[in-house]
Every structure is written in structure tokens, then in C-alpha cells.
Amino acid sequence: MSQHDVTLTDHTIPLAVRDHGGDGPPVLLLHGLGGTLDAWREVAPPLTAAHRVVAMDLRGHGLSGDAPWEWDAALDDIEAVVDRLGLGAPAIVGQSLGGMLALLWAARHPECPAVVNLDGLRSAENEPGNYPGLDPALVERELARLKAMFDAQQAAMARPVPSEQVAALPPRAVATLDGDSYRRPGPDLLAAVRYSPHFRDAVPSLPKVRCPALIVLATQDPPGMPGGELMAALRRGVRRDLAPITEAHPHIRVVELDAGHDMVREKPDDVTRLITDFLARARET
């Protein structure tokens, strides 16, 4: 089967899907916040050597329809794609927001064969206690800087994109309304995701995952993110909180990758290898 795009129209919202084809156990790919299914353009093709590979635009992203962000509703969207494409019980691979959805999917579906979470455990904007080893006053200052940056990004999503900048943006990341172009997702969806407890901290959901799970942690700061010390402390906090979970749940494996949060784009070959090797081992258990 060759790659083809399709939009599912018999769901509560339209859902844009790219079926990459391939033979073998199915894999569904979920992008991060602000991304689209194009994020997997370099990872998906080599995965088809051993898997049926499908990617989708999450609600409010890409060419999928707009709808309020609700985690259960987003999982229902995934259900619709799985059902309509006859994927049965797919492994779920997600980056950032997609990785958080993968954990919830596995908790909802005990039959899920495996999940891969690519740096999708904890938002950079978090509780002060999740930055161990850093002076509390410094944490407070850096969190204020981070909040200001995210507030500005969210506000920018509500403004039309200048016409001279539209061509430089990925086509799936822009929507037209009343003749003006706007970035997707919109500010309301960003706000709903940004302040939801599961986006801020998905670590507590891990013990509910019963299938083999691979957690891939980035070791580099995201480009343009203020406060290198803050990001290093955030990574320390994630490692601290993962240690007792992985000890109690040996089916959850954690590896670190010398890449930033956007590891799918930065290190597609390494990400593909990690996914392929892990899913092969999961099938053997």
C-alpha cells in the first residue's frame, strides 16, 4: 500500500489522517502541541518495513476540525481513526502532547501492545517542587520569564499572520478565516492544554500503563527556552520521579537521547531506531 491522505468525515469533527502503508502490526503516530502529522515525514517511511503506519492531525491541529480540548474527546478521536482504518490494537507512538495521549490511551486500552512516549511527561511550565536542586527564588524568577514567553506566544496565535509570512509557514499549520490567515492551533486550545493537569505532569499516569512502555527523555534544552538552569532542574525532577515508578513497574523502560524536545525532527534516525527496536522487543514478550 502506498502513502495516501484521507479525511474522516463521519466523526464529531473531521479528522485528517495519513496512511503510510506497510505490512505488520499497526502503529499510530501522534504529534506534539502545535504540530501536524507532517512531523513524522522522516520517521514513518522506514517504520513501514515492519509495521502498518498511520499518522493523524489531532483536533484543532493541521487539517482536522476545531473543537474544545478535552482529553477524553481527543482519545475518542483516536478511537475513530483506529476503527475506521481497521487498525485493531495499534501500538501508539507520541511526541510531547502526543506522548501524553499515548499514556492515556494505554490506560484506557489494556490490550494496547506498546506505547512510546517521546519527551512527553512534564510541561516546562510547572510546579516549583518539580525543579529540585535550584534556589527557590531563582525558580520563581525563571518561571515568571517562562510564563511571559508562553503568554506572548498564545496571544500571537490570536492575531492574523502577516501576508508576507504565510508562505514561510507549513500549509497545515495555517487556517484562513474571513480572508485572514491564522496559525493553528488557536489560543483557546493552547490555553486549555497548557493549564490542564495532565499536560503539566503526566508522570502520575504512568503506573496505570500495563503494556510495555518506552519513555525517551531529551537531554538538551529546547531552542529559545529561557533559563538553562531551570530546564536542567526540570530534567532532574523527572528522573527523580521516574525512578520509583520504573523500579516498581519493570515493563516501563526509560532511555535518554542527546536531543532537544523536538527530537523527531532533530534526530529522526535515532528516534526511528529506538521505536523499531522497542516494538520488536515488545512483540517478543
From TrEMBL:
PANTHER family: HYDROLASE ALPHA/BETA FOLD FAMILY, PEROXISOMAL MEMBRANE PROTEIN LPX1
InterPro entries: AB_hydrolase_1, AB_hydrolase_fold, Carboxylesterase_BioH
Residue span, AB hydrolase-1 domain: 25-153
UniProt GO MF annotations: catalytic activity
Superkingdom to which the source organism belongs: Bacteria
Protein name listed in UniProt: Pimeloyl-ACP methyl ester carboxylesterase
Transmembrane residue ranges: none
The organism of origin for this protein: Actinomadura namibiensis
